[in-house]
């Protein structure tokens, strides 16, 4: 892994101490994970967003991961992809103002949804979290929030989603039901299967269907089901790639704790797996553009850009280095997600410009007809 990757990701004190001991040539036996009663309930908060909140709110903000924006992109970007895709399918091109208003609504929804999903995940995984160095100081694991309080907070967040759907078409609310159920079920999957990343991909990809519904587009009609499902599956594969790489940070602790994941199942050949999934992902994106009749702009930016970004990141990541795995997770949403969105955005702008040119031409022809003498 190159030095520039290490500098981009802030290392934890545990990783620093580990590196110090390695550099000094000392071999230390790993210290046993503390029991919940040994974990401090109040952890000093570093300067930043959380330091501005009342002390009683901090643990709940941590549950929602408000201090960790990288994971938020995993929730929000699929909604942007769905809006971009839907805007390329509509008979009448939606206005930029309308699209921006939907982006704002889904921004709020993604924050709430992520908070509920992460709180529920931490509640279910609290015993696992206490055995993993990276997660042992999460609010529930360390005792800052009780299980009952966490459950009530989860319910409150889910109910907070309702005002968002009042501003959206009714069909969006129907999509929210399976999304919430799937996120709830995902938290249990790491106990029974090595493929929880596959399960996680479904609620993320379902955002594409909800975004299309927000534009009054039926994404699974007979002539749209192939491109839509291709994009849906491409998003699932991308989730499997980045979450498997991310899980390599905790692979040793996860094995001891009994957690199952694709990182453990494919530990020795994760890069080969990622390369295979990435190839299929790009092929599915190509299928989406081909079946939806999109222009070369889409293929250059989305298919070409995504292929380059995936190849670069898979080649560069060092799975044995936690900071490199974190780099892959953080930057992947900008490189891969950004490339995928760019094609839809460029396609939308091209359609919008063409639509405005047609409208302007019609208006000028009408004015000329009325103005010329009989």
UniProtKB/TrEMBL annotation:
<keyword id="KW-0831">Ubiquinone biosynthesis</keyword>
<keyword id="KW-0496">Mitochondrion</keyword>
<dbReference type="InterPro" id="IPR044878">
    <property type="entry name" value="UbiA_sf"/>
</dbReference>
<dbReference type="InterPro" id="IPR000537">
    <property type="entry name" value="UbiA_prenyltransferase"/>
</dbReference>
<feature type="region of interest" description="Disordered">
    <location>
        <begin position="1"/>
        <end position="39"/>
    </location>
</feature>
<comment type="pathway">
    <text>Secondary metabolite biosynthesis; terpenoid biosynthesis.</text>
</comment>
<comment type="similarity">
    <text>Belongs to the UbiA prenyltransferase family.</text>
</comment>
<dbReference type="GO" id="GO:0005743">
    <property type="term" value="C:mitochondrial inner membrane"/>
</dbReference>
<comment type="function">
    <text>Catalyzes the prenylation of para-hydroxybenzoate (PHB) with an all-trans polyprenyl group. Mediates the second step in the final reaction sequence of coenzyme Q (CoQ) biosynthesis, which is the condensation of the polyisoprenoid side chain with PHB, generating the first membrane-bound Q intermediate.</text>
</comment>
<dbReference type="GO" id="GO:0016114">
    <property type="term" value="P:terpenoid biosynthetic process"/>
</dbReference>
<dbReference type="Pfam" id="PF01040">
    <property type="entry name" value="UbiA"/>
</dbReference>
<dbReference type="InterPro" id="IPR039653">
    <property type="entry name" value="Prenyltransferase"/>
</dbReference>
<dbReference type="InterPro" id="IPR006370">
    <property type="entry name" value="HB_polyprenyltransferase-like"/>
</dbReference>
<feature type="transmembrane region" description="Helical">
    <location>
        <begin position="165"/>
        <end position="186"/>
    </location>
</feature>
<dbReference type="GO" id="GO:0006744">
    <property type="term" value="P:ubiquinone biosynthetic process"/>
</dbReference>
<keyword id="KW-1133">Transmembrane helix</keyword>
<feature type="transmembrane region" description="Helical">
    <location>
        <begin position="140"/>
        <end position="159"/>
    </location>
</feature>
<feature type="transmembrane region" description="Helical">
    <location>
        <begin position="229"/>
        <end position="247"/>
    </location>
</feature>
<dbReference type="GO" id="GO:0008412">
    <property type="term" value="F:4-hydroxybenzoate polyprenyltransferase activity"/>
</dbReference>
<feature type="transmembrane region" description="Helical">
    <location>
        <begin position="99"/>
        <end position="120"/>
    </location>
</feature>
<dbReference type="InterPro" id="IPR030470">
    <property type="entry name" value="UbiA_prenylTrfase_CS"/>
</dbReference>
<keyword id="KW-0808">Transferase</keyword>
<feature type="transmembrane region" description="Helical">
    <location>
        <begin position="297"/>
        <end position="315"/>
    </location>
</feature>
<protein>
    <recommendedName>
        <fullName>4-hydroxybenzoate polyprenyltransferase, mitochondrial</fullName>
        <ecNumber>2.5.1.39</ecNumber>
    </recommendedName>
</protein>
<comment type="pathway">
    <text>Cofactor biosynthesis; ubiquinone biosynthesis.</text>
</comment>
<keyword id="KW-0812">Transmembrane</keyword>
<feature type="transmembrane region" description="Helical">
    <location>
        <begin position="198"/>
        <end position="217"/>
    </location>
</feature>
<keyword id="KW-0414">Isoprene biosynthesis</keyword>
<feature type="transmembrane region" description="Helical">
    <location>
        <begin position="70"/>
        <end position="87"/>
    </location>
</feature>
<keyword id="KW-0472">Membrane</keyword>
<keyword id="KW-0999">Mitochondrion inner membrane</keyword>
